[in-house]
Design goal:
- Helix content is 30%, strand content 19%.
- It is built from 12 helices and 13 strands.
- The chain has 350 residues and is α/β, with parallel strands linked by helices.
- Bound molecules: thiamine diphosphate (TPP) and iron/sulfur cluster.
- The site of thiamine diphosphate (TPP) has 19 residues, from helix 2, helix 4 and strand 5.
């Protein structure tokens, strides 16, 4: 079947500060199943970049293999992209980021791609605090290979065929906090009011920003008994907060009762304005964030929103003191400073 997307757009579509309409941030027509949660997340990513006034050519989209990893084709068609091997997106992202720190790195993965074959790579990219957004479209199954349980499927969750999962799930948000991720959030593909500001905040965070998004697979895991179905997630979501993301330079206009909001200032001057709902939870405190996630899990709920942030973080480039400029902008003299400089370096290592 051939899909043709009409080129016509309403001339009155709003433009962002760069003069682009939102369709400039879209991609090819999706070939995913109608109703797949992943398509809503692609739309949220496009919307977030439109609202943040990002030049698409400043973004590099990276992914592994899976229905989720196909989605970079469906947003930001004017950006750079690399669809890597199953579970190997983190090493491609690390190499690209180290060579050129001037791009915004946006990684998309699945729960299979991250929590099974890619687990070894995932844990290391988290602890290195690579400056990127790492978004998992989490449907609790391997959608692309016909719906086998993944490592994030909850114990007791029932597949479409009726079999019950016997194994404990890997909770990616808890794991990311435990490993030292400096921005951890959780959301639902069906809640774009929450998801778009989370993506915007993650893209503005100067370090590893992990976003776990429950994204139902309508074809293989949307049945009664599944804990990743649309109905189940809607009934069991519990938000830490509602919040606005206010980019640097934008005036904060809304006024709130004193004490009802908490402003978290980011490195670039942007502000995350939290309207706290969860008591006894402090997003700046890792232990408090882990407790809040675990308490929700015990109650069978999914805690969504911003879970943890360290706004004062140092990302990988700062830690290992790399060049300020991308490698392709360095001159031959800078890259190859000559035998005297080499001899001096060798001497310093003796
Ligand atoms: C090395 C390797 N092993 C196995 C596969 C088969 N395979 C393709 S996608 C996939 C899992 C996809 O699941 P997930 O990452 O959760 O993405 P989804 O399709 O559910 O979005 C597997 C096992 C592969 N492509 N490459
Ligand atoms: S198989 Fe599932 S994950 Fe894949 S496109 Fe269809 S609904 Fe989405």
């Amino acid at each position: 079947m051939t899909y043709v997307r009409p080129k016509f757009r309403h001339p009155g579509l709003p433009k962002n500060d760069l003069g682009y309409t939102v369709d400039y941030y879209e991609g090819s027509l999706s070939t995913l199943c109608a109703g797949c949660g992943h398509d809503s997340i692609s739309a949220a990513i496009a919307e977030a970049c439109f609202e943040l006034n990002i030049e698409p050519h400043k973004v590099a989209k990276l992914s592994g293999i899976g229905c989720s990893s196909k989605t970079p084709a469906y947003f930001l068609s004017n950006s750079h992209g690399f669809n890597s091997v199953h579970g190997r997106m983190p090493s491609v992202a690390t190499g690209a980021n180290l060579a050129n720190r001037d791009l915004i790195y946006f990684g998309v993965s699945g729960d299979g791609d991250t929590a099974s074959i890619g687990m070894g790579q995932f844990v290391h990219v988290v602890r290195r605090n690579l400056n990127m957004v790492y978004l998992v479209m989490n449907n609790g199954c391997y959608g692309l290979t016909k719906g086998q349980d993944s490592a994030t499927a909850d114990v007791g969750s029932k597949s479409k065929a009726g079999s019950v999962n016997l194994f404990e799930p890997i909770d990616l948000a808890s794991l990311a906090i435990e490993l030292g991720a400096t921005f951890v959030a959780q959301s639902f593909s069906g809640d774009k009011t929450q998801l778009i500001p989370l993506i915007k905040a993650g893209m503005s965070h100067p370090g590893f920003a992990f976003i776990n998004v429950i994204s139902p697979c309508v074809t293989f895991n949307n049945n009664p008994g599944s804990t990743k179905s649309y109905d189940y997630v809607r009934e069991h979501m519990d938000a830490t907060s509602t919040f606005d993301f206010v980019p640097f330079m934008k005036e904060i206009t809304a006024s709130y009762e004193e004490g009802s909001v908490e402003d978290l200032k980011m490195h670039d001057g942007s502000v995350i304005r939290l309207h706290k709902l969860e008591k006894n939870w402090d997003p700046l405190n890792r232990i408090s964030a882990m407790n809040a996630v675990q308490k929700s899990r015990v109650k069978g709920e999914i805690l969504t929103g911003l879970l943890y942030i360290d706004p004062e973080t140092s990302e990988l480039h700062e830690m290992i003191k790399t060049s300020d400029r991308p490698l392709n902008a360095l001159t031959e003299k800078e890259l190859c400073p000559g035998s005297k400089a080499l001899a001096k370096l060798n001497e310093s290592l003796r």
